[in-house]
């Protein structure tokens, strides 16, 4: 069977890029489909170990890799008072010829890998979002949102946390139930500076903190979000500088990112179905504030926190969520949520949250209030990106059917934008609303 290439790779993060290089070096032809037109310019990963160093070297970028990474020979863990709890690591190269731990700048690594892949003739198609895969006995055809297709003998999903290949292939995943929010702050130092130890973990229950290298000339701090803090508060740059103050000040460095990420522990149970495979890490998860599945996930998080801090199982939201997820303890919440099998299935439990609120659950009211505030915060982000609106229209199933969510969103918009943006609820089908808006913006006589 004639195909465009031997292997189609979905996703051009570090994993897709490395896989493409290794396959082409082995004589296979490869097409890569990546949804973003440009590389993502901010680091996520900062650390690789000696075995990964070896894999990257086998891609033909070993010499350059040394210049964009630095060895991390010591990792020290201290308690809140500064007493060392653990100090480990080893100087010099390990048995594989690479340091046991190296710190690096991810965009610089991806730049190196991309250059190598293109030099080897990998067919890299950017700006192509994969939406479907048709698997036959001897080939697969991958379709994209723009209608283009690519055929191959195999397709490998290197498409990160919300892998479409995994979901199209129906490959299950297990959530080990560990999920926490951390504020990540990356800085570029104005001048070279030695941090001793190079990598430090501060095990202070009042604010667990990670202080590590982000590659030569760069540093990364990670601050765990405390239960009373919102994402929005933490993503304020002034707060980031206050948290950084013990180590670095604005006259010594520039912040290149400050963003809250949710760390999760998901494992793909199987990696292959027929000609469809998945590879790669779970990467970053896009926010879904106020959506039905997002509400259920946040309810799960709130219940876990509530029980951890001494709450009891007769609380209406705890009772309702446990019954809906068919679990008896908070230890299973994460995996039960993952077992639901996707956003639609998870979202079906959203009524539990509103029933608990109606039964007087303060916990449920908090979750709904935060969801409304999270949605309103998105408007702030849109404004930062240049959106200039004085009306925001909310529509769709959950916010229309659940007056509490609408009220929390409306109140948060009013409080946040002090009358500059008017929130409105549209109770028709969202697509009709979009058509109405389009007709209002484009004169009816204009050719489409
Ligand atoms: C703050 C933070 C710190 C981290 N630190 C570390 C660390 O120190 N070490 C480490 O190993 N890992 C770390 N990680 C995880 C790290 O991000 C991942 O290991 C790594 O980026 C995974 O690479 P990947 O290529 O599998 O996925 P990604 O880098 O997520 O790339 C996936 C690509 O797939 C594309 N894609 C997705 N869907 C589609 C579609 N439908 N069609 C086409 N393209 C699509 C995406 O646009 C993206 O470019 C960290 C992550 C975060 C967020």
Would you summarize the structure shown here?
This protein has 448 residues and is an alpha/beta fold.
Question: Which labels suit this protein?
Answer:
alpha/beta; binds flavin-adenine dinucleotide; 37% helix; single chain; globular; seven-stranded mixed sheet; FAD/NAD(P)-binding domain; eight-stranded mixed sheet; 448 residues; Alpha-Beta Plaits; 22 strands; 15 helices
Rg, Cα atoms, Å: 24 Å
Instruction: Please work out how many helical segments DSSP would assign.
Output: 15
CATH level 1 name of the domain at 5-46 and 105-174 and 266-278:
Alpha Beta
What is the name of the CATH topology of the domain at 5-46 and 105-174 and 266-278?
Answer: FAD/NAD(P)-binding domain
Can you tell me the CATH superfamily of the domain at 5-46 and 105-174 and 266-278?
FAD/NAD(P)-binding domain
> What is the 3D shape?
globular
Query: Average pLDDT value?
Result: 89
Give the assembly state of these chains.
single chain
Cα distance spanning the termini: 41 Å
Secondary-structure content class: alpha/beta
Describe it.
With 448 residues, the chain is an alpha/beta fold. Among the domains are: 5-46 and 105-174 and 266-278, FAD/NAD(P)-binding domain, CATH 3.50.50; 180-263, Alpha-Beta Plaits; 292-368, no CATH class. It has helices at residues 14-25, 50-67, 106-119, 164-169, 231-234, 237-244, 292-308, 316-325, 333-339, 343-347, 350-358, 362-384, 397-401, 403-417, 430-441, and strands at residues 5-10, 30-34, 47-49, 69-71, 75-79, 84-88, 101-104, 123-126, 130-135, 140-144, 149-157, 173-175, 180-189, 199-203, 209-213, 218-224, 253-263, 266-268, 272-273, 276-278, 391-394, 422-425. Strand 9 and strand 10 form a beta hairpin. It is globular. The structure holds flavin-adenine dinucleotide (FAD).
């Amino acid at each position: 069977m004639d195909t465009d290439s031997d292997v189609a790779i979905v996703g051009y993060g570090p994993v897709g890029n490395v896989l493409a290089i290794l396959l082409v070096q082995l004589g296979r032809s490869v097409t890569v489909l990546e949804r973003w037109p440009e590389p993502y310019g901010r680091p996520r990963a900062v650390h690789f170990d000696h075995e990964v160093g070896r894999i990257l070297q086998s891609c033909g970028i070993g010499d350059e890799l040394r210049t964009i990474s630095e060895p991390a020979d010591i990792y020290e863990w201290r308690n809140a008072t500064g007493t060392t709890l653990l100090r480990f690591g080893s100087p010099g190269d390990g048995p594989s010829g690479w340091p046991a731990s190296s710190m690096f700048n991810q965009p610089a690594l991806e730049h190196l890998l991309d250059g190598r892949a293109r030099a080897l003739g990998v067919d890299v198609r950017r700006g192509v979002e994969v939406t479907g895969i048709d698997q036959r006995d001897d080939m697969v055809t991958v379709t994209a949102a723009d209608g283009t297709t690519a055929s191959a003998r195999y397709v490998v999903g290197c498409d990160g946390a919300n892998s479409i290949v995994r979901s199209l292939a129906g490959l299950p995943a297990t959530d080990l139930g560990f999920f926490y929010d951390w504020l990540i702050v990356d800085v570029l130092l104005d001048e070279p500076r030695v941090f001793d130890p190079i990598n430090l973990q501060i095990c202070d229950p009042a604010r667990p903190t990670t202080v590590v290298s982000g590659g030569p000339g760069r540093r990364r701090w990670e601050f765990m979000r405390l239960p009373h803090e919102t994402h929005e508060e933490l993503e304020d740059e002034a707060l980031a500088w206050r948290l950084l103050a013990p180590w670095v000040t604005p006259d010594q460095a520039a912040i290149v990112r400050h963003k809250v990420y949710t760390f999760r522990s998901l494992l793909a149970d199987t990696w292959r179905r027929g000609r469809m495979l998945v590879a790669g890490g779970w990467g970053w998860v896009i926010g879904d504030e106020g959506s039905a599945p997002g509400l259920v996930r946040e309810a799960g998080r709130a219940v876990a926190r509530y029980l951890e801090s001494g709450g009891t199982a007769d609380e209406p939201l705890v009772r309702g969520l446990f019954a809906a997820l068919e679990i008896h303890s908070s230890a299973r919440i994460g995996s039960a949520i993952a077992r639901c099998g996707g956003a639609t299935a998870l979202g079906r439990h959203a009524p539990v949250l509103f029933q608990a609120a109606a039964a007087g659950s303060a916990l449920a009211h908090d979750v709904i209030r935060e969801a409304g505030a999270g949605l309103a915060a998105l408007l702030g982000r849109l404004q930062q990106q240049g959106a200039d609106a004085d009306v925001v229209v909310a529509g769709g199933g959950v916010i229309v059917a659940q007056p509490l969510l609408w009220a929390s969103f409306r109140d948060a918009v009013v409080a946040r934008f002090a009358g500059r943006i008017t929130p409105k609820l549209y109770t028709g089908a969202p697509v009709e609303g979009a058509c109405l808006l389009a007709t209002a913006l484009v004169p009816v006589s204009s050719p489409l």
